[in-house]
Amino acid sequence: MHFEKITLVGVGLLGGSLGLAVRERKLATRVEGYARRTASIADCEKLGLVDRATDDLASAVTGADLVILCTPLGQMRRLTEQLLPALKKGAIVTDVGSVKVSVVSELEPLVASVGAHFVGSHPMTGAEKVGPDAARADLFEHAVCVVTPTTKSAAEAVRRVEAFWKGLGGRPMRLTPEAHDDLVARSSHLPHVVAAELANYVLSPVHPKEQAELCAGGFRDSTRIASSSPEMWRDIALANRGNLARVLGVFIEDLQEFQHALESGDAKGLEEFFVKAKERRDGWRASNSPMSAE
Predict the structure, then answer these.
(1) Domains of the chain as residue ranges with CATH
(2) For the segment 8-34, what is each residue's pLDDT rounded down to a tens digit?
(3) Shortest CA distance to 251 belongs to which of 211, 194, 204?
(4) Phi, psi (degrees; rounded to nearest 5) at 136
(5) Is the separation of the CB atoms in 16 and 134 below 8 Å?
(6) CB–CB of 203/211 below 8 Å?
(7) For the chain, percent helix, then strand, then coil, each to nearest 5?
(8) Quick one: pLDDT band at residue 289, thresholds 50, 70, 90?
(9) Would you say residue 98 has pLDDT above 70?
(10) Average pLDDT over residues 183-205
(11) How far is CA 85 from CA 2, 61, 62, 79, 279, in A?
């Protein structure tokens, strides 16, 4: 799959990694990037993430065959409205957002109004680091890349988006926006809330100063993603709040069951809890290697 011009709207971790991967795999003749900050523009070109970076959105989008929105969810509609006049007829617009129902329902008709195609995407990969410096050309290798077409999607546009992710070394998976948001509420959004609360609670200044010194590998690994962009995760939580609130409620109920077993001294129940968790995670690891990280 080859495009003449790909434009990245946002050139941070995901956008920058896309630029590196596209250029390394020669999936486009030219890659351009839109960045809000002047400092980011210089970084993008210095790091070789794009052929050209600019803070002129229309200039970046003009002539692009594929436009990829790599910004926080809360910025996507505004930026899409701004880029529409420069979007050429027949172009494809996709995104890397972690929530799909709201993104697809808002952006699909906007993009269609100028004769272009919107197809939602979500590569299941990432890191807690942000910014162009964190970009990696191999970020999408072996990662599941969800594509979320609707009944209005053009079949050829969907095919090209799936081929694009495959060309980056990813594993395309087709889901409805609704199914995607339900599944990631458990596998992606809930873990971020849990990691953030662990960091908030354990590292609270109300605890003795020795508390932080006793936080070792287990705490570090469990809370790694709490260092992710607060703006991004605020937007994700709000955009998928219905699903996230529901699964959070089930999670709290499960913790309360564990608490009850603990308080009653139920050794068998406690052991079954840990055995089941080990078996399920070990089975998941075995069937999902090599893994992607998110």
Answers:
(1) 3-175 (3.40.50.720), 179-287 (1.10.3660.10)
(2) 999 989 999 999 999 999 999 999 999
(3) 194
(4) -140, 135
(5) yes
(6) yes
(7) 55, 15, 30
(8) low
(9) yes
(10) 98
(11) 24, 9, 9, 11, 53
One-letter amino acid at 220 equals R
Single-letter amino acid code for the residue at 50: V
Q: What are the residues facing 174 on neighbouring strands?
A: 147
| Cβ 87 vs Cβ 116: under 8 Å | yes
Residue in the structure block whose two tokens are 């002047």: 38
The tokens for 212 are 């932080």
The helix/strand/coil state of 232 is helix
Looking at the chain, list the stretches that DSSP marks H as alpha helix, in order from N- to C-terminal side: 13-25, 38-46, 57-61, 73-83, 101-112, 155-167, 177-184, 190-202, 217-223, 230-239, 241-263, 267-287
Q: At what angle do helices 230-239 and 73-83 cross, to 10 degrees?
A: 90
Q: Give, to the nearest 10 degrees, the angle between helix 230-239 and helix 241-263.
A: 100
State how far the Cα of 250 lies from the Cα of 175, in Å rounded to an integer: 24
What pLDDT sits at residue 294? 46
pLDDT in tens, 112-149: 999 999 999 999 997 777 778 888 999 999 999 999 99
